[in-house]
Design goal:
10 helices; five-stranded parallel beta sheet; globular; 295 residues
Length: 295
Amino acid sequence: MKKVRQELVLITGMSGSGKSVALHALEDAGYLCVDNLPPELLRSFVQLEQKRKEKRIAIAMDVRSAASLPLLPQELELVRQKDVDVRMLFLDASTNTLVQRFSETRRRHPLSRTDTLSASADIERNLIESIELERELLVDLRDKAHIIDTSHLRNAKLQSYVKSLISAPAAQLTLMFESFAFKRGIPMHADFVFDMRMLPNPHYENELREMTGSDAPVMAWLQQHDTVQRMADDIERFLRDWLPSLTQDHRSYVTVAIGCTGGQHRSVYMVEQLANRFQGQWVTLFRHREQADRT
């Protein structure tokens, strides 16, 4: 009988990026969740839960344990050697988004100075400095994790996104295709980015403008253009050539971002076409950033 391995999801990232929301999503999915566990206690905690036959645990760690964060990569490697599948999710957001969130909640950043003057300009400057310092402290963890850009994600959508990610088998590579609008910025978590803006645009067809690339009339219109199919073939060929190398690098997730001007037609169509082509070879998911933001 095949031994069931323990699964550990590590949630880390920027303060204000939604780590508590992600942890709640995992708790709803049946994970034993712990917030702000010091890195030096990681191994002993995992061993304890192994004795208790707890198979799925999720832990949040961040700069609240700044002094011991450098220990974390080594501790994670030792945990992996104990029949544990480790997945790391790093939640991030733009600095402007984080400043806005802290301003709205009136919460203090964990790295902010306590001697800051009361003037609003001084408070904001201190907050921005704290955010940039936090980015520096977390850069090594960010490089080793799957990044989720929450700048444009509402809480409900973030929870849904996290649940879809962790529902995939832990030992396999999960391929995430994501559509986006260039006018709203490139997703900071993308591993590969492809630009669809040179392709024919359904936006200029009156009867198609209010539809999306998921709608049959838009799909039929795009399929009439050889350049669209050639682009899909080129991206597929590129990914099939290079994804095997990423699986050898112990990657859990790879995000392929497909962008067009508004994120409604060409990128949506291409994401769904590519997801269909890769389904079966890898665990494949897709999402549409701009549509998710509207619902």
